[in-house]
């Protein structure tokens, strides 16, 4: 079942302290922390008054880690065995752990100081020779992550190395938990949602439960920017007011050019932002990515230019057909070019690649679409 922190917050507000404590006791610590992260200050204070001292200490320990860090989402339930055991002895230790650890995927070998020595899957232990030493079966120097590292880095490592879980160790190399693949999927899903929101100028942290005052504060700056950019486009169109006044059909055809360019660019934008979120684009591949998206724009532009030329010719608008088809071709190409390059430029400048990319793309395709079409029409008609 899906976990909905805000739904839990709404429910527990109407329950007794005893029932709330029972609900939290059945939840994983990382899920309880998620509930607190989604709470308002007043809600968090009310919940802290209800829960017992032990749970409160666990939550405060997790919240001491930076926001969006691995420490906040890691599971402290790990299967660990002592270094130097035989496989048979290790299985004996694991039998005593099954009540504390629900799902054993990886088993971690630690020394007397709880320092991580190696890792092996539960399957490897079961099928290994009973008399073999764990050191001979396990993977030494395993991939691990620090609790202060970003959650997205944990998700990236899990994906890159095709892991089911990633051990979390502190600065002293002590094993303190693990980040699981289910957690990584949640992080990726959240990142995609944030990128989608930001690409349209909404705050990454905004949800349907965000107080309306905060939602207004998050959205208003980008709406103001969008409006300012729209005035630039309006001013540009006004420079052709005499042409538009004498030929109303030009005004009717202008949105066609802007829309096809914007939609084509949005396709490239979505592809590149998704690739950046998955760390699929290295510095060496930037030119290749932009080149490919631009070539797609050229090919699609040719098809749509031919289509628009034929369509206008069939309805008797031969004098507009060439102007529109050239403008459509050019704006689709520009849309793909800037749709792929804007997020890459933002990343190079140190900004979030998803940050309101769609707003800037729309500005460019509107300017090129309107000005390009009107300029070409003045020359050819």
Question: Briefly, what is this?
Answer:
The chain has helices at 5-12, 17-25, 29-37, 41-50, 53-63, 70-73, 87-97, 122-127, 134-137, 151-160, 181-199, 212-238, 241-246, 248-277, 286-314, 318-348, 357-380; strands spanning 79-82, 106-110, 116-121, 139-140, 165-169, 175-180.
Structure description:
This protein folds into three domains: 5-64, no CATH class; 79-181, Roll (CBS-domain), CATH 3.10.580; 200-380, Tetracycline Repressor, domain 2 (Orthogonal Bundle). 65% of the residues lie in helices and 7% in strands. The protein contains 17 helices and six strands. The strands form two sheets. The protein has a four-stranded mixed β-sheet with strand order 1-2-3-4. β2 (106-110) and β3 (116-121) form a beta hairpin. α3 crosses α5 (53-63), α12 (212-238) packs parallel to α17 and α14 runs antiparallel to α17 (357-380). The radius of gyration is 29 Å and the shape is elongated. The mean pLDDT is 84.
Question: Which helices and strands, and how do they pair?
Answer:
Blueprint: H1 5-12, H2 17-25, H3 29-37, H4 41-50, H5 53-63, H6 70-73, E1 79-82, H7 87-97, E2 106-110, E3 116-121, H8 122-127, H9 134-137, E4 139-140, H10 151-160, E5 165-169, E6 175-180, H11 181-199, H12 212-238, H13 241-246, H14 248-277, H15 286-314, H16 318-348, H17 357-380
Parallel strand pairs: 1-2
Antiparallel strand pairs: 2-3, 3-4, 5-6
Helix pairs in contact: 1-3, 3-5, 10-11, 11-14, 12-17, 14-16, 14-17, 15-16, 16-17
